[in-house]
Amino acid sequence: MRGELIRVLSGVEEKANELKMEGFEPDIVLFGKEAYEFLKNQVNAEFGGEDTVSEISGLTIRVVEEFGKDAVVIDSKVLGLGLGGAKRVKIIKD
Fold this sequence. Notes:
The protein is 37% helix and 22% strand. By secondary structure, the chain is an alpha+beta fold.
């Protein structure tokens, strides 16, 4: 279990760092419904409890059902204003 949680955290942090290197300021992670449930189960298995997860690596979590098994790290201040500002992460490996 711990390995999967570390993999998810590393993936999110890697994409956030890529955005920072491109001059963006990532602040939100949009999780697909399945990806969020996977993360929540991993966190609850590791730390106990049945709590929701609202933050990962200092980034606010929002659930976007359509993203399914993936998550997207975004800079919400520039998303949609031009190219860039978002990086996709595969959360559940097939």
